Amino acid sequence: MNSVPFEMGPIRPVDEADSLLIRTTRGCPWNRCTFCTLYDDMKFSIRSVPDIKKDILAAKEYFNGHPFETCFLQDGDSFVMRTKDLIEILETLRYAFPSLNRISSYGRAQTMVKKSPSAMKEICAAGLNKLYCGLESGSTQVLKMVKKGITPESIIKSAHMAREAGMDTTQFIILGLGGKQLSKIHAIETAKVLNEINPDYIRLLTIGVKPGSGLDRQMAKGEFTLPSETQIISEQRLLLEHIEGITSHYANHHSIDLLLEIRGWLPGDKDRLLAILDRFLSLSDTDQINFVLGRRLGYYQCLSDMENDRQYQFVENQVQKIRQTDPDSFEQIFHNLRCQVV
Question: What pTM was estimated for this model as a whole?
Answer without folding.
Answer: 0.95
